[in-house]
Amino acid sequence: MPGVSIQYAQSTDRADGFDRTLEELCYFDNYTRTIHRRGQPWTIGSTSYPSYPIVEFETDEYWICLEGEIYETGTGASLSETLEAIVPKLFESTGTEPQQELQTWLSETDGEFVLYAVEKATDTLVLLNDIFGRLPVYYSDTEHGPVLTREIGFFFESPLGDLEFDRHGIAQYLLFGYILRDRTLWENIKTVPPGTQVTVQSDGTTSFRSVAEFDFDTPHHADKSLEENASALAEKFRTSCAVRSDVSRKNVLSLSGGHDSRSIAAAFHSLDQPCSAATFLKTTRETSADASIARDISQTLEFDWQLFPVDPVKTSNAETLLTIKRGLNHLGLSFLIDFFEQLQATYGANSTYYTGDGGDKTLPDLSPAKSLSTREELVSYTIAKNSLLSLDEVASITGLEKSEIVAEVAATLDAYPETNLERKYVHFLTHERGFSWLFEGEDRNRYFFWSTSPFYSVEFFRYAMNVPDEQKEHNRLYREFLRELWPQAIEFDDADFGTPMSSPRYKVVQYGLSFLGRHPSLEDVARVIYRGEVSSEYHPNIARLLTEYTTQSPALDQYLDVDTIRTFANDTSSCGQHQIYNLLTVSAAIMLAEQETAFASRELALEAVPS
């Protein structure tokens, strides 16, 4: 990911190595590297393209840098005035409790950012990320001192020593498709948690402090009607879209046939702001429900809309995605590299790319389909509802005991601030799948252009998460929300269910899904019947690659049970495409880290053609 990297360097040699590392991280032709501060103890630099948002300035007391965007300061002050006022609070705060003014500021600031500052008198460095942690930051306390970076590849391109993979991180990735809390795939690399202040003293001593976090225990808007809440959310959503629309950038919406991106289209329409819409269609298909619905919506709104044919998953794009994200992105999504390159060629890198990410986490009912009475029930339910591979399979692949894997899930749930078990489950869905999975995906987008989602406005998110579950049931709140934005929005089909929100059939489907949620044994069968899904075999080239890995890579055998991998590789019907891509992603990441080639520069198709 383009962005800032900070290395503790007490010698000139370390600083010189920093320059070479940044050079290696300029993955694309329009990238440049910048050294912001050089010397002892901090060397600070960045890689970026011209429109990537990084601003820096100095006062008599501080060096200040903001990466990302703050959309509203809330006070009418300029960005520099706002930062000059808040930065001293970061250095005044002591102990484990943040200063109240700092906590309030972070809780109310709408943006996707990381704030960096150095106090010149003491050489103390502070980092503060937004309350969502929208821009992932990675931390490692290396043998040479602490490193903080937005670019995961920094650890692999710099001479910081060997990296060991974390079996628990691997297990969680295989189990859920994402890694929990602050873990990564590597033992000594952590992700800075959302809303966290990191303070590093001049001697390298590092401390972490939570400044602000979300607590979903009590729905504060239960006293308002469904219509009142939908109206308030629609207004906040319009504001979120408006402040994210920068006149210096072109608005480009990734428009599908679902409700989330449709909400953004409706908001831009109601604001009368220009927006181009883009939809991809894999070249293995002549058409899709997403493309047809996106076209109809765009024509009705008189949006500029383009359909982009993209290649299905192939090794060249998978190699690019693996190189830039090192395994933190699912390789089954590598076809998006083709899509983004076309978007960049069409609209330019000076664009704001809008996605509907977060819509499925804020407006639907996320509460568990059954009541949970004990902590053990919560843990079991969380694993059962969200796992891709079974616990037995993950334990066999990683060599961990099932009890060890379960204990890590339990510890994650225990760490949440909620006391209500059902609300802890909601926190899991918003913060683990939502933050850990979605935000890494959005960072992939930012290699090409600035990417945002109005669903992650602080004010909108907080309000939506305080609407009671009974108003969200069966997408009632979502339907009213869309109706408030643009009444015609609920008249177009939903691509997943082939029926519009306004139809009686849609209500029947939603009630049916709720019933199935309470009867998990029927859920998979119904999905096959209703959505026309079949037991899909994954592409045999993936089996071929996994077989090659198990025979050619000693490193793979160090972390994964190669015999278990071979059982998956020998039977392409042993699991679905999502599961096998997770296994391929982890395996390829291990090989890449050991300087072994995962794809040998061969152009292979990796995605099965739908029948």
Verbal overview:
The protein is an alpha+beta fold. It contains 24 helices and 19 strands. The model is unreliable at 527-535 (pLDDT under 50). α7 packs parallel to α8, α9 (315-325) packs across α10 (335-347) and α21 runs parallel beside α24 (577-593). It has a six-stranded antiparallel beta sheet, covered by helices on one side. Strands 4-5-6-7-11-12 form a six-stranded antiparallel beta sheet. The chain has a five-stranded parallel beta sheet with strand order 15-14-13-16-17, sandwiched between helices. Helix content is 45%, strand content 17%.
What can be said about this structure in brief?
This protein is of the alpha+beta class.
Indicate the topology:
Elements: E1 3-8, H1 12-24, E2 32-37, E3 42-48, E4 54-58, E5 62-72, H2 79-92, H3 100-108, E6 110-119, E7 124-129, E8 138-142, E9 145-149, H4 154-157, H5 167-176, E10 190-191, E11 196-200, E12 206-210, H6 226-244, E13 250-254, H7 259-271, E14 276-282, H8 289-301, E15 304-310, H9 315-325, H10 335-347, E16 351-354, H11 359-362, H12 375-386, H13 391-398, H14 402-414, H15 421-445, E17 450-452, H16 458-464, H17 469-472, H18 476-485, E18 493-494, E19 499-500, H19 504-517, H20 520-531, H21 540-552, H22 554-559, H23 562-569, H24 577-593
Parallel strand pairs: 13-14, 13-16, 14-15, 16-17
Antiparallel strand pairs: 1-3, 1-9, 2-3, 4-5, 5-6, 6-7, 7-11, 8-9, 8-10, 11-12, 18-19
